[in-house]
Please model this.
Amino acid sequence: MLVTGYLGAVLIGALVGLLGRLVLPGRQRIGIFATFVIGIGAAVLGAVVARALGIADNAPVRVWELRWDWIVLALQVGFAVVGVAVANMLTFTRLAGGDDNRRRPPRTRTRS
Model:
């Protein structure tokens, strides 16, 4: 694989990670770097699973020089959604979650 192939894979992975983050409802508490890493992993995993199932070239689309497959893209975004959800669950804490309901009420000073 050439350098442009690796660069393209990283860019597609970042796009898949962003799409996965957009599909998942609610606020995600992970950073953009984690989203990109999850997207790259999801893109690779989706491509491998599609090839293993034999559905890699069933719905190809071509626009100018770009070529992709809708089914593979759907698999990749699905894996990215699962990855972002798992990362969000692993990084969620009560302190970072902003759960103010469990906080004690502020103490008031009384003069005696």
